[in-house]
Amino acid sequence: MDEISTCLDSWTTFQIVNSPRQYVHIFDGTAVISLLQPTPETYDLFDDINLLSDSKIVYQGPLENVIEFFEQMGFKCPEKNGVADFLLEVIKHKLGTFV
Asked: What is the rounded CA–CA span in Å between residue 85 and residue 93?
């Protein structure tokens, strides 16, 4: 699924992402979904994520490890920020010198 959230509200996007998630967990499968700026609720549905910057992989792995990964690189997620917004900010504006 490629950028399925375009022109959709956050509730609809959540429902669309949640459906294949349930299928994947029941049948031990894989789904690849590309989203642009997901809400925190939709972001939390993912098990693993791949983050790209300029066609290079910046992070690939479990969702629960991504904050620790970027903290080890010197980027701390502000408490009031959503993780997806933080990751987008780091990738778009701060990683240019690291990638």
From this structure: 12
Question: What residues contact 66, with CB distance under 8 A and at least 6 apart?
Answer: 49, 51, 59, 83, 87
The sign one gets for the Cα dihedral 75, 72, 91, 86 is negative
Contact 75, 94 (CB under 8 A): yes
| Residue 49 CB coordination number (10 Å) | 18
Please tell me the distance from the alpha carbon of residue 10 to that of residue 15, in angstroms, as a whole number: 9
Q: What is the pTM for the complete model shown?
A: 0.76
- Mean pLDDT computed over 13-41: 87
Question: Tokens in use for 18?
Answer: 């949640």
